[in-house]
User: Which sequence fits this backbone?
């Protein structure tokens, strides 16, 4: 048996980031992984400018009761003339500071009449001026390779005048479901058959993380069908995920088929519930992970155990999302030597807590859309109502 943390870490080390890169325009960057460090090339703001609607003056010209002639009006986008001693310039938020001016008086503290402005409050030297480079100085690191680009990062790239950036290619994930009992949704079903949920589920999980579900194949429980499907996925994809057929049943042919393809396959009994049989192989230089066939197990195993490997291969810098400690609103007796991942729902409030789904059976798929996350319970340790446990938020762990 292998501990959960060890299995997760070993999977995450099973492959490096893919080497494919592409250069994309700003409009296509959302959700992509930056492949280069970005340094600022511009000072931002690029010139001193006003943080207020008001008047620019030289601070030394201020005297209580003295009015200054307003010699220019500077709108955002105008290039101001230099300000001579004893003059004031009318300006607005974002207007450039005239050369020589060093202080902005906001309009609420002034009275303008007949082309003269009177300053009613003694200004502080340099007030309400945004200095050149105070946000970002040229040469400063801006974004690190491995960042998943979102609106905030794209705004920063745009502010530097950059119209494109180099990102990792989308990770191509190949998915293989197995089992003679399965039929595709949308087709008729015999009484002895069930619909295939894992194919669509794993494709959605991969795509939800920004990867591409490049192929979703199904193989019957026979060697020819399995080896043809694996061969196709290994040729076209960066990472292969197979589901089912990897226990010790008579029809569990995934292991022998992969071995016949030259793989050495490590079959792990991970100390976690749901989800015991998980396998890792390298075949033709590609990592391949076998997940348990039960959809609830596959969902949990993908989320908490396999997703760090996907993030690593995508080139992402952070591969382990945050885990919180939250009180669990139920008691649980733990005896079976495995850590348990309960389907729970996070209840916000003054004291946030986790509510557990009533039926934690590994066949209960209706619990999946109900749950906002998984609560990790230690093995062989009874849990009292209100005990703080590790909470894996699906919004983080499936992203
Ligand atoms: P296996 O590991 O192949 O023995 O599968 C374990 C259980 O999960 C069996 O009850 C299968 O019928 C079920 N199962 C396997 N694959 C799928 C799938 N793609 N969709 C729905 N149920 C599945
Ligand atoms: Mg099967």
Assistant:
């Amino acid at each position: 048996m292998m501990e959960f943390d060890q299995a997760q870490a070993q999977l995450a080390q099973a492959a490096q980031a893919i080497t494919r890169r592409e250069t994309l325009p700003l409009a296509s960057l959302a959700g992509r992984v930056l492949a280069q460090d970005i340094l600022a090339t511009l000072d931002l703001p690029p010139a001193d400018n006003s943080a207020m609607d008001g008047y620019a003056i030289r601070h030394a010209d201020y005297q209580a009761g003295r009015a200054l002639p307003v010699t220019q009006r500077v709108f955002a986008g105008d290039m101001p003339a230099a300000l001579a001693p004893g003059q004031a310039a009318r300006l607005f938020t974002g207007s450039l500071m005239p050369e020589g001016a060093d202080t902005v008086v906001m309009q609420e503290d002034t009275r303008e009449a007949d082309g003269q402005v009177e300053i009613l409050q003694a200004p502080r030297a340099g007030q309400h001026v945004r200095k050149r480079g105070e946000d970002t100085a040229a040469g400063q690191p801006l974004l690190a390779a491995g960042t998943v680009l979102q609106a905030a990062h794209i705004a920063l790239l745009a502010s530097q005048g950059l119209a494109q950036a180099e990102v990792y290619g989308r990770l191509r994930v190949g998915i293989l479901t197995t089992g003679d009992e399965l039929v595709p949704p949308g087709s008729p079903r015999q009484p002895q058959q069930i619909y295939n949920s894992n194919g669509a589920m794993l494709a959605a999980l991969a795509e939800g993380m920004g990867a591409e579900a490049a192929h979703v194949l199904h193989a019957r429980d026979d060697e020819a069908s399995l080896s043809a499907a694996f061969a196709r996925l290994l040729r076209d994809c960066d990472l292969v995920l197979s589901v089912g057929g990897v226990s010790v049943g008579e029809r569990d042919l995934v292991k022998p088929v992969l071995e016949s393809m030259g793989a050495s396959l490590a079959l792990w009994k991970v100390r976690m519930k749901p989800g015991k049989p998980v396998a890792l192989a390298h075949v033709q230089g590609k990592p391949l992970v076998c997940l348990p066939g039960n959809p609830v197990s596959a969902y949990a195993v993908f989320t908490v155990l396999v997703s760090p490997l996907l993030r690593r291969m995508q080139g992402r810098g952070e591969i382990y999302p945050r885990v919180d400690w939250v009180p669990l609103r139920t008691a649980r007796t733990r005896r079976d030597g495995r850590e348990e991942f309960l389907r729970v729902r996070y209840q916000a409030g003054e004291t946030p807590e986790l509510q557990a789904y009533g039926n934690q059976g590994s066949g209960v798929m209706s619990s999946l859309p109900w749950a906002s996350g998984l609560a990790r319970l230690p093995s062989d340790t009874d849990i009292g109502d209100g005990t703080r446990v590790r909470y894996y938020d699906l919004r983080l762990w499936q992203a």
